[in-house]
Structures are given as structure tokens and as C-alpha cells.
Amino acid sequence: MKTIILRTASTYLLPLLLMFSIFILLRGHYSPGGGFVGGLIASIAFVLHAFARGLDNTKELLKIHPGFLMPIGLALAFLAGVTPVLFFDLPFMTGIWYPGQLPVIGSLGSALFFDLGVYLVVVGVTLTIIFTITESA
Amino acid sequence: MTQQLVLYPLLLQMFLSIVLMFCWRKISWQRVISIVGSIINVGVSIWLFSYIWENGTQIVLAGNWKPPFGIIFVADTLSATLVLLTAISGLAVSSFSSASVVAARLKFGYFPIFHFLLLGLNGAFLTGDIFNLYVWFEIIIISSFVLITLGGEKAQLEGSVKYFTLNILASMIFLTAIAVLYGLTGSLNMADLALKVAAIENRGLVSITAILFLVAFGIKAAVFPLYFWLPDSYHTPPSAVAAIFGGLLTKVGVYALIRVFTLIFVGDQFIENIILIMAVLTLISGGLGALVKNNLRKVFSYLIICHIGYMIAGLGLFTEVAIAGTIFYLIHDIIVKTNLFMVSGLIFRMRGTNSIRNLGGLYADYPKLSLLIAIPLFSLVGIPPLSGFWPKISLIIAGFQAERWWVVGAIIFASLITLIVIAKVWASVVWKEKKELPVRLNFRYFDKLITIRKAQMIAPMIFLSLVSLYIGFGAEHIQQVSSRVAGELMDNQQYIEAVLGK
């Protein structure tokens, strides 16, 4: 798989795909998209990088073990769900919204953090599975 | 503060699993977190139970979406009781597994997955939405797949293939049944379904949907023609895993059966007869299976099946007395079965085998522990005044009142068989002369464990035995709880009013 075309392309594709995944994550609230799809696209970016450059380079790029993203993502999603219970005495998972509008993102609410958690969990799970399979192959 | 109380057990379990995932490699931390968290969980569950006991059914609207559109969580007395029992068994198994499960298995995320399993169980007991129930079932079976295969021994993988196949099949049937039900009524909220299903004119279609649910939950609960996966898989994982499986996993199926057939599909004579026939055959075949097996854990696995029959029989008789018997049996069974599988784990650690033929001389070597083991064994048989005795009275009375003599006969027959099986186990494991077994190298025998590990294995058994004794000697309290649950279940209007607020 280590052809020069793929290797050159992967250098440009990695940041592009990552940006696209964040775009998909952010548009997910009312339009098709969201944390799950975004996370899959982000993991595709890394998988493609691993195919072109070898697994070790990708691991170096990631700095942390992808499995560690799972508890971080879960914790983020959990906090997004628990915040209304702890601070507003509203039921679990009630959406808490920032009253104003933010540039780029639009309305900011706890749902976004939940989706971000899903995004991280999906990236973590997918990369852990694929890296493990690649290593053992 | 108390408004969200219903969800606290769920949130606590989820919090615990996330914290445990952060300590992935630190096994000794995980042991402490799991045990301390489980103790807190028992406290929270007692709080929930006493709150429900005083204030009646409570609901929480997840995401603040109003029923019947949003997912709701409902804690009536049955749910609160089962959450409390889950917490008690969870605490016992958490302590037991930190001593008995080998470190190689603990390293691969045993404790986080264990708490995810408890999360799924709590969720299944508390949810008021049938699709959400399916999701909790998925969480339960995914966690149980991990727990049953963790370690990757050959026998384990063989057992887990059977477990996996039939449970996935059950989930598929469950999902199909939900789809049909949604097609018929356009709703997923259980209380709303109860109203809408009652209004459907085409009763044949409703009966068929009910049968789909019966098959799906029947596989999960391991009733007569659908139980073959259970004895083939439950003896393979570590005994701590088998304890939580045997104590709680099949009971989720029973819970789902009770919930669905007292709330949504009510008063169908045809279904009730089918349930009764299944119950009688389960009682007989489970008992006979236990009679011929030699592996201690296989014997206990067949006894699980046999005793599921009692609960299903109570559901099939469908009178208030019978349902009270079912609930009492459920309470007794969860505690005793969890304890029994821990007993089998302890015996395995002592002798290095679970084959009844090769075991023996336990009383000569460990007299005090043998007496401790006697409590769950004889509670299971139901020698008065131990805990298994009382629910059978309710069930037999209900059988007499309904003039279903064959059900009464099967109940007595199964009790007798259980007595024979347990007497056989007791005589050959505890009393028989010790056989010289080959000493297994690289095996951590009970005597070689350090004191704190020994305590971690014995303490949960003492704890559960005390709970069992309380159920037996304080039967009046348990009977009060069961009668109240039965009253709530027989009058499904209460549940519907609590949820929909009409």
C-alpha cells in the first residue's frame, strides 16, 4: 500500500478529512450528521494515514493510545447528561442552552457536548479495533 | 434532590464504569473503586426503595420530553425491589470477583464491563419504554458477551458461541415484536401501549404479537423449550461471572415477562395456558436435568431453569396470590442463586475441580465454611423456615384456588427433585470421604490465598446468607412487599395513571 501517490495524498487528506468530520459533527443537530458519523470520518482519516505511512507513524501522530479516548468521550457525554440534574434540577439529558448565538457554531447547548463525547468514543473504539487487527495481522 | 432519585442508581453505575475505565491498568485501584462504589450503590438503592415504599410510583422524564413521546423511567415497587436486589448481588459479586477472578482477566477491563452490566440491569428494571427496554437488553448482552469470553479458554469460547447465538436470536425476535407492536399501535411507551393494545379489535393479531414477546423473553429467561443454551454456557466463565449471570441475567427475562404480561397483554386465556404449560415442563425438565449432571455448576445451572418454572407458573396462574408468590420467589431466587455460584467458585478454589464425583470431605477440612454453604443450599430447597419455603405456599394456594391440579403437582414434584439433588450434592461434596486429587500446578488454591483475599471471598457469602436468612425468618416483611407488588401489577391502571397522569 505504500505507493507514492497514496502517501502524498494522505498528507493532504488527513487534515481535510478531520476538518470535514468536525463540520459533520457541528451540523448534526438539525441536519444529517452528528457525533457518530463525524467520529467515523475522523477515524477514516487516521486509518488512511496508517495505510499510507505505516501504523507506527500514525501512533506517533496520535500521541495517546486511541483506547484512552473512550473513557474521555464517555465522561464528556455523561457530564453533558448529568449537568441538568446537578445544577438545574431538571431531568437527566435535558438540553441546557446558552442564551446567545456563537459565531460558526450557532446555538451552544449541552447536546453538543454529548455529541462530542460520542465523537470521541467512536474514534477511540474504531481506531482501537483497527489498530489491534493490524498489529496482529 | 429526590425528584431525580429514580435515575441515581443508573447514573452511579455509569459513573463507576467511566472511572474504572480511566484506571484501566491499575487493578488494585479498580478493586477498591468497585467495592466502595457497590456499597454506595446499595445505599442509594435502599434510599430509592424506601422512598418508593412511602410515596408510591415515581417517574422521571428523560430529557424532559413528555410521555408518551419521550423515554420515561418508572420506579414502582417491583422495579425498586429489583434495583435493590441488583445492588445487593452486585456488591457481593464485586467483592467476590476481586478475590477469585485471576489478574489476567481483570487486566482486560473486567470491572468496567461488570458495572456496565449492572447499569444495563438497572436500566431494564427502571425503564417505562419498550424500545428503551430493548436497548438495555442490548447493553446487558453486550457486556455479558465480554464477561463470558474474557480469558478466551477453549471451553469458554464454545459455551459463549451458544450463548451468543441464542441471545442474539432472542434480541432479533424481541425487536421484530416491538416493530409489530409499533405498527399496531404507533406507540412505544408501555403505559400508552397498555391502553392502545386493549382497544385493538383484532385480538388474533395481538395474541401473535404476545407470542413473539413470549418467545423472545422466554429465551432470555430460559424456559422449557428454549433453555438449552443456559446449561451449556453458564459453567464455563469464572464463577464470579456465573454468579451474576445465574442470579440476575435470567431474572431480567422473567421481569420482562411479568411486566409485559401484566401491563400490555392482559387477560388472554390462551397465552396464560401456554405460559402454564411452559412453566410445568420447565419445572420437570430442569429438575430432571439437574438430577443427572455431575459438574456442580451444571447442576446449579439446571436448577436455575427448574426454578424459573415457579416464577412463570405464578405468572400463568395470574391471580394476586400467585403473582405475590412469583415476586417472593424472584426475591429469594436472586439472592440464593448468586450465592450458590459463589459457593461453587469457593469449592473450586478449595479442590481445583467442580466434579461432584471427585469432591468430598469438605466438612472434615472446613467445618465452619460447610455450615455457611448449608444456608444457601437448604434455602434453595425451601426447608422451613428458610427462604424458599414461603413463596411455594402462595403458589400452591393459588394453584388450588384456580383448580389447576397439574400445576400444583409439578410445583411439588420440582421441590422434591430439588431436595434430592441438593441432598446428593451435600452428601457427596461435604460428607463423603475425601478423594485424593492430583495437585494442580500453577493453581491458586484457597489455602494459599492471602487473608484479605480469603475474606473477600467469604464475606459476600456471609452477607448473602444473612440476607437469605432474613428473607426466611422475616418472611412477613417480604410477603408485604410481594403482596403490594402483586396488587400494583394486577391493577395496571395504577401504573398507567402514574405515567400518563390521567
UniProtKB/TrEMBL annotation, chain A:
<comment type="similarity">
    <text>Belongs to the CPA3 antiporters (TC 2.A.63) subunit B family.</text>
</comment>
<dbReference type="InterPro" id="IPR007182">
    <property type="entry name" value="MnhB"/>
</dbReference>
<feature type="transmembrane region" description="Helical">
    <location>
        <begin position="108"/>
        <end position="133"/>
    </location>
</feature>
<dbReference type="Pfam" id="PF04039">
    <property type="entry name" value="MnhB"/>
</dbReference>
<dbReference type="InterPro" id="IPR050622">
    <property type="entry name" value="CPA3_antiporter_subunitB"/>
</dbReference>
<feature type="domain" description="Na+/H+ antiporter MnhB subunit-related protein">
    <location>
        <begin position="5"/>
        <end position="128"/>
    </location>
</feature>
<protein>
    <submittedName>
        <fullName>Na+/H+ antiporter subunit B</fullName>
    </submittedName>
</protein>
<keyword id="KW-0472">Membrane</keyword>
<keyword id="KW-0812">Transmembrane</keyword>
<feature type="transmembrane region" description="Helical">
    <location>
        <begin position="12"/>
        <end position="30"/>
    </location>
</feature>
<keyword id="KW-1003">Cell membrane</keyword>
<feature type="transmembrane region" description="Helical">
    <location>
        <begin position="67"/>
        <end position="88"/>
    </location>
</feature>
<feature type="transmembrane region" description="Helical">
    <location>
        <begin position="36"/>
        <end position="55"/>
    </location>
</feature>
<dbReference type="GO" id="GO:0005886">
    <property type="term" value="C:plasma membrane"/>
</dbReference>
<keyword id="KW-1133">Transmembrane helix</keyword>
Automatic annotation (TrEMBL), chain B:
<feature type="transmembrane region" description="Helical">
    <location>
        <begin position="369"/>
        <end position="390"/>
    </location>
</feature>
<comment type="similarity">
    <text>Belongs to the CPA3 antiporters (TC 2.A.63) subunit D family.</text>
</comment>
<feature type="transmembrane region" description="Helical">
    <location>
        <begin position="133"/>
        <end position="152"/>
    </location>
</feature>
<feature type="transmembrane region" description="Helical">
    <location>
        <begin position="164"/>
        <end position="184"/>
    </location>
</feature>
<feature type="transmembrane region" description="Helical">
    <location>
        <begin position="6"/>
        <end position="25"/>
    </location>
</feature>
<dbReference type="InterPro" id="IPR001750">
    <property type="entry name" value="ND/Mrp_TM"/>
</dbReference>
<dbReference type="GO" id="GO:0008137">
    <property type="term" value="F:NADH dehydrogenase (ubiquinone) activity"/>
</dbReference>
<dbReference type="InterPro" id="IPR050586">
    <property type="entry name" value="CPA3_Na-H_Antiporter_D"/>
</dbReference>
<protein>
    <submittedName>
        <fullName>Na+/H+ antiporter subunit D</fullName>
    </submittedName>
</protein>
<dbReference type="GO" id="GO:0005886">
    <property type="term" value="C:plasma membrane"/>
</dbReference>
<dbReference type="Pfam" id="PF00361">
    <property type="entry name" value="Proton_antipo_M"/>
</dbReference>
<keyword id="KW-1133">Transmembrane helix</keyword>
<keyword id="KW-1003">Cell membrane</keyword>
<feature type="transmembrane region" description="Helical">
    <location>
        <begin position="452"/>
        <end position="473"/>
    </location>
</feature>
<dbReference type="InterPro" id="IPR003918">
    <property type="entry name" value="NADH_UbQ_OxRdtase"/>
</dbReference>
<feature type="transmembrane region" description="Helical">
    <location>
        <begin position="299"/>
        <end position="321"/>
    </location>
</feature>
<keyword id="KW-0472">Membrane</keyword>
<feature type="transmembrane region" description="Helical">
    <location>
        <begin position="108"/>
        <end position="127"/>
    </location>
</feature>
<feature type="transmembrane region" description="Helical">
    <location>
        <begin position="32"/>
        <end position="53"/>
    </location>
</feature>
<keyword id="KW-0812">Transmembrane</keyword>
<feature type="transmembrane region" description="Helical">
    <location>
        <begin position="73"/>
        <end position="96"/>
    </location>
</feature>
<feature type="domain" description="NADH:quinone oxidoreductase/Mrp antiporter transmembrane">
    <location>
        <begin position="129"/>
        <end position="418"/>
    </location>
</feature>
